[in-house]
Amino acid sequence: MVLAALLLVVLLTCVPYLVSIALAEGPATADASPIFGVTIPAGYKQWELIAPAEEAAPLDELRAVVGNQVAIDAYQAGKLPFPDGTILVKRAWKRKQSPEFASATIPGAATTVQVMVKDSRRYASTGGWGFAHFQDGKPSADETFMKTCFPCHNQVKARDLVFTLYAP
Ligand code: HEC
User: Fold this and answer.
1) Is residue 167 a part of any domain in this protein?
2) Residue of the CA atom closest to atom 22 of ligand 1
3) Which of 58, 60, 107, 135 is most buried, taking the most CB atoms under 10 A from its CB?
């Protein structure tokens, strides 16, 4: 009886510990992008603006590229390649006509959030960048789609695969 109770105590203390190890070091979770295992960075809605952009039909979106502090520091110093730890996020919204002012366009519903994370060793085969694509907070692109990110971004290899320039 005592032994059984002791075993139970040992089990109860071990299980949460083992679960936390599995979660921290386990394979990509449901919240991470296929291939790259990139998740939505915490607090990106508070990050600094690098530049806005517009996308014509059929997507017809308003966009804003923002970056973490490592990204902003690199932009300000004109540093290339971007250092490891750089994270760039592209936010996007449907275009909406302002209800108050006909000529004004404002953000409608949020559409996608795209992320690029610099880790030159982990993502060596894709120019040092890991990619992710989210919709409603969940990764929403399959492997085939995720394989399109690198070849297109690689067109601007001279700018370390980053299209967006700092808005003047
Ligand atoms: C056909 C070309 C193309 C493909 C494919 C593409 N992108 Fe981009 N991406 C761009 C362009 C052009 C920009 C510049 C901003 C804009 O036009 O919205 C951009 C901007 C970005 C940015 C902001 C940093 C930067 O480089 O300007 C991120 C983050 C991003 N894309 C992520 C992705 C992810 C993730 C995928 C794959 C799911 C992807 N992109 C696929 C062309 C592409």
Assistant:
1) no
2) 90
3) 107
In a domain, 11, yes or no: no
Ligand 1, residue 148: give the atom nearest the CA: 5
Regarding the beta carbon of 131 and ligand 1, being less than 6 Å apart is answered: yes
pTM comes to 0.86
| Domain assignment of residue 80, yes or no | yes
Q: Collect all residues with Cβ–Cβ distance below 8 Å to 55 and sequence separation of at least 6.
A: 61, 63, 92
Q: Looking at residue 155, which CATH number applies to its domain?
A: 3.50.70.20
Q: Assess contact for 113 and 41: CB atoms under 8 A.
A: no
Number of domains the chain contains: 1
pLDDT digits (tens, 9 = 90+) for 17-66: 544 444 444 345 789 999 999 999 999 999 999 999 999 999 999 999 99
| Ligand 1 contact, 35 CB (< 6 A) | no
Range of the domain at 86: 30-159
Report phi then psi at 73, rounded to 5: -60, -40
- Pocket probe mutation, ligand 1, options 62, 163, 165, max atoms within 8 Å of Cβ: 163
Is the residue at 76 inside a domain?
yes
pLDDT tens digit string along 113-151? 999 999 999 999 999 999 999 999 999 999 999 999 999
